[in-house]
Write a structure and sequence with these properties.
The protein is of the alpha/beta class and 456 residues long. It folds into 3 domains: 44 residues, no CATH class; 275 residues, Aldolase class I (TIM Barrel), CATH 3.20.20; 106 residues, no CATH class. Helices cover 42% and strands 16% of the residues. The chain has 17 helices and 15 strands. Strands 6-7-8-9-12-13-14-15 form an 8-stranded parallel beta barrel, surrounded by 6 helices. Strand 6, helix 2 and strand 7 form a beta-alpha-beta unit. Helix 2 packs across helix 17, helix 11 packs across helix 14 and helix 11 packs across helix 17. The protein is globular and about 75 Å long.
């Protein structure tokens, strides 16, 4: 076994560290046995029970609320292996990370659990001795039972996804009579004037009223009174039409008026924020609107949150500037793409097999994500040399093909019922773990540089 030197920590009468046991990492406790059993040299598998004990013994390995810091970034790790690479880059910048970040949809697609997501982050921060603190986000949660699940495990952030209660046809009903608070009034926010016509206001109530009631219901049930030490993010981005600044103002105003404290709000921005590729739209128009969204956020005391932030490099300078370096940005799929890029580089035969599977299953994957991928524009890989395969990850259509099929790839089975790719992939990634960490260091670093994030 090879000891991870950064993980060596002392307790009274014991030394605890993590080690590379070849095909897996393990935890070792020498001396007094804090993890159960006789004293001596004891080796433990990285189970949920061991992670719980680690969080108890070393509080820096447990998540904490981080959205109160000026800058924060969610680094969704769909594979549970990106932690060391994420930590490597985050150590260089003045920003707080959310290392555990998964939606229920992603759990279903990857076959993981919230226990696994949180434990992977805990073991990574212990192994790399990352003591700054990190968050754990129950991402895009829509149901009370899922919120309860995340909170029971100690998740420090909830992203309440209100999309199922937002009615684009304005058919929703709001429980509150607020006409006198908004109609006929002009609200000035850092020089930007916001007001509603009668028609606009009826529409806003019909679109967002039910969603606000739902958010307040969840807040009252789980979070009011400080039962859990947890940040709350409101997600109104999973809609077909952009969130107008006036709509952002109304949602934030009503949440505050009704006593709900939120750390961040994620609007649906103008343009397209599709998975794994750069912003689609006019960056100048985005900048103009971001200026107003950021002003509204400052006015009400929350941060703007940018969802589907992976690879949106062209608008990141605007996000950093207009928010005065106070933002939350979420990434996830780009980490998976970097892992797959290394497969294309180092195991071209396996990549070709996976690429063909992804093409065959693209229509199924498309049910879960909004993308405008043109699979007919993806180069025919039978005509590409092995050396040309990694360049596919610089092609938007090929990126989205691999991006949205991750769950199907990881859960694919052969005729015998054995997994088709997953075991081989994880074995490969373990053998190339240092290369993966370096890739994430470069790639996420590019995101932080474009955001203007200051160095630590």
């Amino acid at each position: 076994m090879t000891k991870y030197q950064l993980s060596v920590h002392e307790l009274e009468g014991a030394t605890v560290y993590m080690a590379d046991a070849g095909d897996r990492d393990v935890l070792v406790c020498e001396g007094k046995n804090y993890f159960g059993g006789e004293d001596g040299v004891n080796t433990f598998e990285l189970t949920h029970e061991v992670a719980n004990k680690l969080r108890e013994l070393f509080p820096f390995t447990a998540p904490k609320p981080v959205l109160g810091y000026e800058r924060s970034i969610g680094l969704g790790d769909r594979l549970g292996i990106a932690g060391p690479g994420h930590i490597r880059v985050i150590k260089k910048y003045d920003i707080m990370p959310v290392f555990a970040q998964q939606s229920i949809r992603e759990l279903d697609l990857t076959g993981r659990t919230y226990e696994d997501v949180l434990d992977s982050a805990t073991f990574a921060v212990f192994r790399e001795n990352f003591t700054r603190g990190f968050g754990a986000d129950g991402d895009h949660l829509k149901k009370a039972e899922d919120i309860e699940y995340a909170l029971s495990l100690g998740f420090s952030m909830l992203t309440l996804d209100l999309s199922e209660h937002i009615h684009g046809d304005a058919s929703g009903v709001y429980s509150q009579n607020v006409d006198d608070l908004y109609l006929g009034k002009v609200f000035e926010v850092e020089g930007h004037k916001i007001h509603f016509t009668e028609e606009e206001f009826r529409r806003v109530l019909g679109v967002y009223g039910e969603a606000l009631d739902f958010a307040l219901e969840l807040y009252e049930r789980f979070l009011k009174g400080g039962k859990y030490n947890c940040d709350v993010e409101i997600s109104i981005d999973e809609t077909d039409t952009p969130t107008k600044p006036s709509e952002h103002y109304f949602v934030a105003s009503e949440l505050k008026r009704r006593g709900m404290k939120v750390a961040t709000i994620a609007p649906r921005f103008i343009g397209e924020f599709q998975k794994g590729i750069d912003y689609i739209g006019d960056p100048a128009k985005f900048d103009e609107e971001m200026q107003v969204h950021a002003a509204i956020a400052r006015h009400f005391g929350h941060k703007v949150s940018v969802h589907s932030g992976s690879d949106k490099l062209s608008v990141f300078p605007s996000v950093g500037k207009r928010t005065n370096q106070k933002y939350h940005v979420k990434t996830a799929g780009t980490n998976w793409l970097e892992a797959m890029r290394i497969v294309a580089m180092r195991a071209p035969g396996m990549y070709r097999e996976i690429h063909a599977f992804a093409l065959a299953n693209f229509d199924e994957a498309r049910k879960y994500y909004h993308v405008t991928t043109d699979i007919n524009a993806i180069p025919d890989i039978s005509k590409l040399t092995d050396a040309e395969l990694p360049a596919l990850f610089d092609d938007n259509n090929a990126r989205q093909l691999i991006h949205i099929t991750y769950g199907l790839i990881l859960q694919a089975r052969d005729k015998s019922g054995a997994d088709r790719f997953k075991t081989r992939l994880y074995k490969f990634w373990r053998e190339h773990s240092e290369e993966y960490a370096q890739a994430l260091d470069r790639h996420i670093g590019k995101h932080l540089e474009m955001l203007g994030c200051p160095k630590a």
